[in-house]
């Protein structure tokens, strides 16, 4: 059956397998380089963080234009008449640039959307666009929706012991946010408890209702994420709360102990 459009994104959007399958989203993998070796891009998070804990060095490799071209061709083969390709802030990654190169030769029109967010913030935008398409919305309106959400979604996180790359963490427990194309420190805390306190305070600073998502990297960071999620759920301000996992494509930059949240007015 012919489809008006298919959403494409990359694995740094951290979309769960259920949403990808349910909405027919094309996901192009970010390459993971451990100790100089390119490993399978869908490396299971616990195995990945175990390698980091054992001292492995890590880097990421953005998808090539050929990989995006294959995803766009797959969408066309499924009957899509166009693609909405949604990716992270182009100021911190060349991923969208690779997508743009592939789009020039794609067999169907491809609209590249670069959002001013990263990680699961991109996933929120991609999922919303795909859900809108599934409900019968036009590709033009779904594209506008993704752009609008990208400008509204906010984030806060901690990344103690981050391997480096896009995340530059001050000494100590720092509460961070990605905004305006860079990671910015919001406050430096004495420890984990104070960091969670400040994250909750920052997320709930507005009196408006919000929808929130809380994620964690390695299993060791899950209890802190649980605490953050519980406090948000009990605040009375959060109308919807979900959980996500920080996979290797993002954890390579934020480290195994990272956790945080994305939210937007809800």
How far the N terminus sits from the C terminus, by CA atoms, comes to 34 Å
Q: Mean of the pLDDT scores?
A: 93
Shape: globular
Main sheet specs: 4 strands, parallel
Which sequence of strands runs across the widest sheet? 2-1-6-7
Tally the helices. Answer: 9
As residue ranges, the low-confidence spans are none
What does this structure look like?
With 266 residues, the protein is of the alpha/beta class. The chain is built from 9 helices and 13 strands. The protein has helices spanning 17-23, 45-53, 65-77, 95-103, 120-134, 139-152, 192-203, 222-233, 248-254, and strands at 6-10, 26-28, 31-34, 37-39, 58-61, 83-87, 110-114, 154-158, 173-179, 182-189, 210-216, 238-245, 259-265. The strands form 4 sheets. Strands 2-1-6-7 form a 4-stranded parallel sheet, sandwiched between helices.
Q: Can you give me a brief rundown of this structure?
A:
37% of the residues lie in helices and 27% in strands.
